[in-house]
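Chapter review: from sequence to fold.
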Amino acid sequence: MNKQIIFLISLFAIFAVSCSNDDEPQIPTNAISLNMMAGDSETTIGGSDVFINASNNFASSYCGIADLGKRGGFNQNPNLSQIAQEAAVTPGNFYQITLAQDIRTVAGYRAYPINANYYNVYVDSWIYDKDKDISGAKVRFAECYPKIKQLPKWDERIAVNKELNDAYYCTVSYSFPKGCMIDDAVDAYYSDGYENLTDRLDFKINGNHLVLTYPDLSNNDPYVKLLVRYDNVYTCVYLDFK
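The token string follows.
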């Protein structure tokens, strides 16, 4: 046989195997396999209430379900652009399950807390009964937490330096990493926690940058709580005045 033909056949075989491997989903070691029968509301994904109903749809009363199609994966952060309480089950597709009550609007967009869990799900195949009718689906799922390196941890205290502008006012400025967005709903109290200062302090927020001007409180600095978003994930932080 011609050496060139042998080379082309070998190259094609390698290419075919490579493509086949690329099509296989990357399943993490902590993924759980589950047989879910249609209409069985007792068999749910993880700690959610998501089950497969009689119409072969994922369904939930208190969770958001996102169909990510074949482009999803187990390493994806929360996707909140198109979520519903019901989604058609399709073998080969990825899904994502979030707790609806944890979703809130932060800096103008839906966001999920960085310390809350959610589930990435992959539908392996249908399950058929003895009459070869669809009776359920084989799924694999993993519990996940958002991974956003640009955001501080939940409840992290961030040290900021205050500058005395004159005899009466101090200024504090701070910038989070590029791409972060600070929510304009800022909570501020005296450090004793009794008097709400939100309406008395001057906050200027521009994307990831905050400037706060406030009266000099003689070592009784304000207690400031911020919500900060990056993409579809947010965190809660506190300013620690120095």
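Two observations follow directly from the output. Confidence is low (pLDDT under 50) at residues 14-21. Residues 213 and 228 are 19 Å apart (CA to CA).
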